[in-house]
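Journal club prep — side note

Before the paper discussion, L.F. wants everyone to see what a predicted structure for a comparable chain looks like in token form. Sequence:
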Amino acid sequence: MRLKSFYILVVTLLLYIPTWHVAIAQEKALNVSVNPMGEETVMPFYDYEHIPDFTYEEVEKRIAEMDTDMPFELNETIFAFIDYFTVRNRDYTRMVLERQDMYFPMFDTYLSAHNMPEDIKYLSIIESGLNPKAKSRVGAMGLWQFMPATGKEFKLYYNSHVDDRLDPELSTEAAIRYLKALNRRYDNWELALAAYNCGPGNVNKAIRRSGGKRTFWEIYRYLPRETRSYIPQFQAIMYVLRYAEEHNLILEEPSYPVAYEKVDMGKEYTLENLAKHTGLCIEDLEYLNPSLLKSKIPDFGKAISINVPKSGHKFITENQGWIKDSLKIETERFLAELPEREPVKPLHSATYRVRSGDVLGKIAAKYGVSVNQLKSWNGLYSNTIKIGQVLHIHQDQDNFEKNLASTQSISTNNNGGKLYTVQPGDSLWLISKKLEGVTIDQLKKLNNLNNNQIKPGQKLIIG
């Protein structure tokens, strides 16, 4: 009898187990709240942290169905980066999803105007993570990471006030023209993108080393290490942003871009004063104008158009006259309160031709600059330089003259006299300017020189 009762109890419990599971599942899937009237409101619960499983075959099928002008075939390298963006670094992918609506519509407009593949826009994610103020360790800047030399080639100029490389629209136009030119050269988008990353010279070298192969994966092992991962990352992002929902990459809160319009408010005023007279948010103005390094429109002899939130554009255009007058008064008042400043010293630019035995560190020390400055000024991605290569160096005049004849070039002879070793680029005039109390005539007399001709390595008596 006891055994029979036990079996009945077990069977009863088993019958209720599915009900327990359903109740637990509903508790996880539903968020129940009670309003002041005592009524229950059931809201769906969404698990944003859930990471769906996926297979190589599923991803391969989705890629085959992608509508793109830049097709690619899945391989293990690309699949590894897809796993990285959808599993291991989901925060980065969500950050990109938050920013894409701010820049992708503008990218699409420029790409369409140049008849370029729409998917080129994903390259800016690999370059900068859609951060217009991104700066690399070697000095590349902006959404499209232009080095100074390449930027100037495509009319992206910079000074202490404005850096066009940080201007989303100007840099996008420049990047598209550069990529278009690279694709004309290689007639292959993967090679064009690779050249954008490491330079056409490295791609050409890889093609030669591969025996003349003309596809990315055929020259893959001959490319720089960074470029080998650059294209697979780009292709992985092309897939991930198309299938973000399939990987549960969904924003918990929607992101709304700041719509903007351009206005011309003259020159020589600050964004802070513009915000004060228009009621606009200074943070919005700075966000919309990342190329203004000091949040100030300088006096360049011409006006600079700036971006303002679309919500305030009508008010500004209708009241442009008195707003400009107010900005001018603020500027004049500010300048009147400033103490007199010393005149800005002009910059001196020099060129140096690389000689046998030279390294960047040695050249940097000679001119009193850093290796990073040399690389930034000359668009160098590494410390490698070649004999005969011309390097550009920029300094203010005083430092230039002092550093060019550093104390490292001065030695003593057996009699205790001072000797100066002539450096590349030296002249008697330049040496006399840097050595106090020494004139050109004294140098010529001390060294029995009949003319002004000197050569690197020559030792001159200087006292």
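L.F.'s comment for the group: The chain has 20 helices and eleven strands. Keep this in mind when we get to the figures.
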